[in-house]
Amino acid sequence: MGIIYLEKNVHDAFMERMDMIFEKFDHLLIAFSGGKDSGVLLELVHQYYQLQRPSAQISVYHIDYEGNYQQTIDYVSRCMGKYSEFDYYHLCMPISASCGVSMYQSTWMPWNPDEKNIWFRELPKNSINLENHSFDFFKVGMSDYIFQEKFSKWLHKKKKAKRMAVLIGIRAQESLHRYHAVTRNDSFYMFGNIHYSRRITSNVFNFYPIYDWSVEDVWTANAKFGLDYNRLYDLYYKSGVAVSNMRVANPFHECGIHSLKLYRSIEPNTWNRLIGRVNGANFAAMYGGTKAFGYREISLPEGHTWKTYTNFLLKSLPKSVREIYLRKFISSKKYWLDKGGTLPISVIKELKEKGIIFENLGKPTRNRKYKREYEVVRFKDYPDEVDVKDFRLVPSYKRMCITIFKNDTSCRYMGFGQTKDELIKQKEAMEAWENLL
Length: 437
Known about the structure:
single chain; Rossmann fold; seven-stranded mixed sheet; 16 helices
């Protein structure tokens, strides 16, 4: 089915989505990060509430990653408790968060009880933290993704709601991962036929009601309705950051490496605390986005193949981090050499032209709907390097090297999902191979 263009603006479409959600759900939970998308979502839900006065309960939660710009901290403080009709949960828990700045830490732990002396700041007033929480599911060091999912289930039970909708400010324009999250057409994971939804449990669903908004739409809504927003974006603008690159997130997340260096000029005092918090923060600020950090084309050292170079890099890593990569890399090899993976026909044609040996297993048998025509291929040998246009889609040892250089322990560059729990909780003993791959 082709794209259907609706004769309405994105604000009207959002309001119609709220009509449906408030009709079907008796509790709404807004995920508020302090960024522009979750901020406009919070304001628009309140706007809808003022107009329609629905009977459903509305809650807001914010996961505080301890370190952030003062402007973000101030904005979160303004928003948490802003509307008396809503319930608020300011969560300052010692959970494991993604760390893309260090080869020695795949994750870091905000509010780590063993590191109080180097916390960025004191616990905010009225926060839910390790000392006062009542979460029966919580374990120190659990991943932030798992925590969010379990928190949703816990709150659903606490509120005794029949059905809960978790509203998340994800826009498909932001990245391919987000585009995939809101465009897949899998009835098992959706609420009815709503493709911008995702099932968490039988009665808890995520919804992405501004998924089709552009960044321009967000700023237009802020201006047109006079909405409050994180003033950090004003400082980003004055610093010359492109609108599409302005992000508010966990300061050490791999997606924020490009902007990490801005702490030095925008908030030098915060920067001084950052470099003492996580190993590699200063290096990432200096070289993030350069060849040294794996973001540009890397060259093969003399005397190496990409396979031997991958093994060399793995051996140079700490054991705990090496095991994370090994688990993913071995899984990739088994997948492409035993089961086979799907590739676009255009890529398969390129592989044939390059003389790569593989077996074509025909069209995919699963019911997933692809936007391009795909076929399943199984490689005879794991490729060392493949010079094709869509390089990231095809397995190779060079792709593994780039993944290591990017400190991408989740291996998203190789197409793996964000299974954060694996990165911090499952450090299984692996047989020591003389040749690691």
